[in-house]
Each structure stands twice: as structure tokens, then as C-alpha cells.
Amino acid sequence: MTESRFPSLPRLFIDLATYLGFIALVLCAGGQSDFKEYWGAFHLISGGGNPYDPQAMFDLQRSIEPSLAKPLMMWNTPWLPLVFSPILHLPYELSRFLWLCSSCLMLYLSLHMTTRLVGAKQSLPHIVYLCVLGYPVMECLRLGQMGCILLLALCTSWNFANKGKHLTAGLIFALLGAKPHLFIILGVLLLLASVRNGWNGLKASWNPQFLVGAIFGTLCLWSLAVAVSPALPIQWYSAVTGTFAGPPPAYLWRTATPASIIKELLGIEKKAGQLILLWLPCVAGIAGAVIWKLRTYLRSRMPNQPIRELIPTWTALSVALSPFAWPFDFVVLLPLTVSAMHAAGSRAVSIRAIDFLLLLQIASLGSLWIAGEYFGPWWYPAALLVWVVLARRRSSAHE
């Protein structure tokens, strides 16, 4: 009997009801939605202004929320609001509502693709809902963040690569450049894996078309920004490096990464020292990727798993070792979460690797707890890890 690639009507009804509940919950929660930063950035760009100018952003956002105490800035690449201009050009309230609906739809599509890619075509409902109800997803939807966009881009690229359409996969992967610091290690690993060197495992899984697609997609996105305003790339660079007069530069941020907690505990005040500590885990991850490639080449052996099956693990590693990441950025770890839940009792997947990455997630979210902000987010990955361990023990007891 062939399994359906689409959810059954009862499950679809429950899913839709769940997401309608999400919409109602987020709309009722209100608060200072981070969506203001994307909406404001688009309208500043369309008006010929600088989307990274704190004063200009503050004046625009005060027009929609007079009680706002400080501007909510967008630090993402300038082409992001241009790509979503069909939604962002609308009046604020309507635009915010459609952004939320779109985020819920992207989340659903991403989970549907992920459960099929990891082999759980009839994915257990409690697995999916436990993933969706996790803290990062709720935080992302509540704040109006762009995590669901990154998640859908990641899962869609993964899906096309799994089908052998590497050029299309690379084109879609370029969208992850909206937050490049999160996916540096993942990009390096895919770049190394795309090099042809005669290994059957790698050659059968990836080819240089993925790299070509990613480069071409990136050039197209930046060309869009330059076509609208040639000054946008310079304005973005000035903002993220702290040379623009405004909020504290990025190296002073306290975020949910091991690098950030190390920086806080050591209490280093000099800019050079903080930058080194923030980027050291990422550089170490890149060095580890290169060593992995060399060892595989010298031993002339195939990887234990096809490259496409390692995407969730590589993504988690890339995010965990990034210099900056907020709790809502962990939405992109949903593929690993689904994979961990599905394989909790299976010996086909390296359980130790999953446990290690979940512990990294706990450490990352714990950094904000120790720093006195976002108290409590660590419970989500901690509960997930306990769930995986207990599920594995139950499965072993039945073998």
C-alpha cells in the first residue's frame, strides 16, 4: 500500500485549527512586535532613505506606535524587505497580519517536508506538535521574526537537493544569506561536499551545481538591492560593523550562543578580545570541516550517511557555533528536532551526535539566562533532550 504524500483530511483540519489558534494567540498577545523593523526598513528603502539609520527608523515607527521608547532596528541584509515587498508595502496592521499568516504557512510546509525527508511520511502528531509548541517557534511568531522564512528556505533547498535538483537547491539556499552568520559553517560544509574528488558517497550526493546556484542566487539578491539603491550595501556594512552612529555595535550584544556566554564570563572589555571570542567557535567549526574533508579524502571512504541526511545536524552545528543567535533563531533547528524525535529509538542515526547538539542548544539558551535576560528559555531544549533519552530507553526495552 502506497503512503500518501499529503496529510489526511482529519489531520489537515487539526493542523489548520492549531495554526488559527496560533494566529489568535499572537494577535491577542500584542506587544512590541519585531515586525516593525522589517516594515519600517522597507518603507525607508522605498522612500530613498537609510534603513539602518536609528533616528529615521524611530520617527517612522513612532508614526504607527507613539508610545515606542526606542527604535527596533533591522540588521539583516537589505534585500530581505525587498523580496517580501508584496506584504511589506501594505498598511502596517494588514501587513503584520499577513506576515503572521505567511509565517504559520511556512512553518507547516517546512514541517511537512521535513517529516517526509527524515522518513516519517505519516509523522506522529505528537512529534510535530511538540516541535511546533517549542519555545523558539512561539517566540518567533510572537515577535514577528523571520525565522520561518529561513526554515522554509532551508527545508526547500534540502528537498530539491534530495531530488537531485542541485542548481535549484543552491538558488534557494542563497536566501539564508539574510542571516549569514548563522549558516557560515553549513555553507562551508556544503562547499566542501560539492567538490568532486572521486568519492562515491559525496559524488552521488552533491555536485558543483549547488555551489553555482548559491553564488548566482546571492548575486541576484544583492543586485536587487543595488538596483533599488546603490548605497544599501555600504549602509548595511556600516551598520553591522558599528561605524554608523546609533545603537551598540554587534560585538557588544549578549545573545544565545556559547561564544557570548564565554565573553560575558571572562569580562573582556577590549573590542579586539570580544571579537576574537565571538568568532573563535565559528573558526574552529570551519577548521573542523576542513579536517573532516581531508580525513575522508585521505582514507578514500564514503561517509556513514548520505550528505543530504546530515543537513539537520550540520545546520544545528552551524547555528550553535555562530557568533550571534537569539532564541527565536533556533526555529531553524526544527529539522534536527523532528529527526531526533523520529530516530529516538533507532540505531540508524548517531544518537550521540543528536545528544551533543541538543546539549549545545541548552548551553546557547542558557547564556541568556546567566546574563539575566530571557530567563527560562533553556527548559525547551532540556525537556527535548530528556524526551529523546526516555524514548530511546523505552525503545531499547522493547527490542
Description:
- It is a single chain.
- The chain is built from 20 helices and no strands.
- By secondary structure, it is mainly alpha-helical.
- It has one domain.
- Helix 6 packs parallel to helix 9, helix 6 runs parallel beside helix 18 and helix 19 runs antiparallel to helix 20.
- The radius of gyration is 21 Å and the shape is globular.
Identify the notable features of this structure and list them briefly.
399 residues; mainly alpha; 20 helices; disordered N terminus
Distance between the termini: 26 Å
Tell me the number of helical segments per DSSP (H or I, 4 or more residues long): 20
User: What are the segments in which pLDDT stays under 50 over at least 5 consecutive residues?
Assistant: 1-7, 197-206
The secondary structure category is: mainly alpha
What proportion of the residues form beta strands (DSSP E)? under 5%
User: What share of the residues lie within helices?
Assistant: 55-70%
Would you kindly provide a brief summary of this structure?
The protein has 399 residues and is an all-alpha fold. The chain has helices at 9-29, 35-46, 54-62, 79-83, 85-88, 92-117, 125-132, 135-143, 147-162, 166-173, 184-193, 200-205, 209-228, 232-240, 258-266, 271-299, 311-320, 334-342, 351-370, 379-398.
